[in-house]
Write a structure and sequence with these properties.
The chain has eleven helices and seven strands. By secondary structure, it is α+β, with helices and mostly antiparallel strands. The chain folds into two domains: 5-187, no CATH class; 201-348, Alpha-Beta Plaits (2-Layer Sandwich), CATH 3.30.70.270. The chain is elongated and about 100 Å long. The protein binds guanosine-5'-triphosphate (GTP). This is diguanylate cyclase.
């Protein structure tokens, strides 16, 4: 019960930002369209047609992203159509045999889209195919004859750009992981009590809101129990503040171990705990909490050779459909007050 959805959301979030990929597609679409128009005016109709087709594929990719929000599919569309375009440019030479110069954009785009490992793997396959196209004898594959020095230098410089892009991608991923860890840490601090590791008041309210919505939907009962340790000031005064802290931690463990998985116990304030019992009537909440109270009757908390005995008082309230969370807790607080003023070590109302 005491888990944070925000943390799970973050875990599942990919390091690749979808909106950046969408921008890639838009830019790719515009550049290839402009290049297609230039090729058309230069009477290079085949190149113009290929570039126009690439521009159209990017347009479809953008449309898929906007309609289905599917970044995995759009990534595959952009990347592999870019590869095909590059193979075409290397194979035909593009304008004045300058086609191969465009292959440099493959390294950063592949690494950004597919991440460090998969990106490097894709680049390896890509450059191997480019090498095969360029170095294959022209009687096997008819392609423009590139000077050997040009071919070697193109591959060396491509590998250098790949290395630098990989380095950049690696540090980007590391920073993302670091930020993710920091965010998780801050979220824990925001939602959990650092002493007992139970949910704090903010998280308890979040869970209560969720359970209240479920209760209204399913019409199943939902109960809360406000618990306050009896004469806790005396524990601090007699044994010291650290002993008081140890008592709070041990009670938190006993409480957590005594409830079902779907229930929750939170640290509501100083020596106050709040139990949330979904699908539980006030009567059943009373039975559960009474059992915990019985457990505490003979329990001694050991702290630095001292044996400390504590009891608690509780007030229970079953939420009504027309009742706000504040009203339910105030009502539980009133019952708690009754339990205290009737002599403590009691749970009210009694069933
Ligand atoms: N050690 C420790 N003490 C705390 C903590 N938070 C609150 N307290 C102490 O809890 C005590 C609560 O005292 P009171 O509100 O007078 O209540 P009580 O002594 O439990 O008496 P009753 O509730 O009337 O039974 C105070 O002495 C607080 O200092 C904490 O995190 N650690």
């Amino acid at each position: 019960m005491n888990t944070l959805p925000e943390i799970d959301d973050l875990k599942s979030k990919n390091v690749t930002q979808p909106h950046v990929i969408a921008i890639f597609v838009l830019v790719g679409m515009c550049i290839t369209a402009v290049m297609a128009i230039i090729a058309f005016y230069n009477n290079n109709n085949l190149l113009a047609a290929v570039l126009m087709m690439a521009s159209f594929i990017y347009f479809i990719g953008y449309f898929v992203y906007k309609t289905f929000q599917n970044t995995a599919l759009i990534s595959v569309i952009i990347l592999y159509s870019l590869y095909l375009l590059m193979f075409y440019l290397v194979y035909t030479g593009g304008v004045g045999n300058s086609g191969p110069l465009w292959i440099f954009m493959v390294a950063p785009v592949s690494l950004f889209i597919h991440g460090f490992k998969r990106g490097l793997f894709d680049i390896f396959i890509f450059i191997t195919i480019v090498g095969v196209i360029m170095f294959m004898p022209t009687d096997i594959i008819a392609h423009p004859t590139y000077n050997t020095e040009f071919k070697l230098r193109l591959i060396y410089s491509f590998l250098t750009v790949t290395f630098l892009s990989a380095l950049y991608e690696y540090s980007r991923q590391q920073s993302f992981k670091h930020i993710l860890e920091l965010t998780k840490e801050y979220q824990k601090l925001a939602y959990f009590d650092p002493l007992t590791h139970l949910s704090n008041r903010r998280d308890a309210l979040r869970i209560l809101k969720r359970e209240q919505a479920r209760m209204l939907r399913t019409k199943e009962p939902l109960s809360v129990a406000l618990c306050d340790i009896d004469h806790f000031k005396k524990v601090n005064d007699n044994y010291g503040h650290n002993a008081g802290d140890a008592v709070l931690v041990e009670l938190a463990n006993i409480f957590s171990d005594s409830i079902r998985k779907q229930d929750c116990v939170a640290r509501w304030g100083g020596e106050e705990f709040l139990f949330i019992f979904p699908q539980t009537s006030a009567k059943n909440a009373y039975i559960i909490t009474e059992k915990i109270k019985q457990k505490m009757q003979d329990h001694l908390i050991h702290y630095q050779g001292q044996k400390i005995k504590v009891t608690f008082s509780m007030g229970i309230e079953e939420l009504h459909s027309n009742q706000s969370i504040d009203e339910a807790i105030n009502s539980a607080d009133k019952y708690l007050y009754q339990a205290k003023s009737s002599g403590r070590n009691q749970i009210h109302p009694k069933f």
